[in-house]
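Lecture 7 notes: from sequence to structure.

We start with a single chain of 344 residues. Read the sequence below before looking at the structure.
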Amino acid sequence: MGIRVDNVSKRFGDFQALEPINLDIKSGSLVALLGPSGSGKSTLLRVIAGLEQPDTGRIYISAQDATYKTVQARQVGFVFQHYALFKHLTVRKNVAFALELQKWSQERIKNRVDTLLDLVQLEGLGDRYPSQLSGGQRQRVALARALAIEPQVLLLDEPFGALDAKVRKDLRDWLRRLHDDVHVTTVFVTHDQEEAMEIADEIVVMSNGRIEQVGTPEVVYENPATPFVMSFIGAVNVLSPDHTWKAHHQELPQTAGQVFLRPHDIEVFTASTDGSLPATINHIIHLGWTIRLELSLENGQPVTAHINREQYKTLAIQPHQRVYLRAKLLRTFEESPSYAPSVA
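Now the structure, written as tokens:
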């Protein structure tokens, strides 16, 4: 049940939402469309679903041309950020709604709904109304309803965006386990890098209506293809290309643009050492096992470094203290455009 996006573009008035895009999504995979607001990820999802028609190109589902098929004919399950449940219907009736439209027998509907409520861990709650459920439970009802028709493809548009952090984390873990159970080809939209890294088999990084990179979470983090991917996936310091920074056994090209340095790729010392630069600690922020250091170099450039709690105790550092920084790994991109830091 794979998906093929062939040279698809979409414009809304003067706004080019999607440049011509080509993308193959493997059958049974869990794929994240990741990017900032306005990157085109939701538009691409809606074109795959049939909720929007492309200006150019074709959509293939299971090797069949679905470009002009209706949502129903595509056998697509769609889950929105804000649940879109029927408030006047019980959980059971919400899940059964599409099956009743398809005129399934009552016995078959009951069996299917029972199976789905068990699958989404809502057994015993079938007679409640949406207002009697938590946000996480409502989102699981929406997922059960989308799965009821046994879709070829499951599409989710920012499915956890309206939930608090703890519920989002629990539902991310649950969605990954659910996907491993049902193996339906799943595409979800998110602007949350951690969410995409945690549960997706592959990540499609988008910006300005274009695909910047497609790859596994490990590949897009360890081997970013563009400055945008480097800056958007994970925390990073974006430094001026003055070549003051040097990494062990690494020569930077003289034509390099900005220099990208992950906070965890910075070593911190209390005394000067080979290849280190002096810096002053402005703030020390405790994030559990990770300690974030906000620093300034002598030229005033801000830098963020991450160390673990054991290193912090060993260094015994304090705010306003002078320390020395050394880079373990620097990255550059030829003719890289200017990017603002996205450190955290």
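The first helix runs from residue 41 to 49. Keep this in mind for problem set 3.
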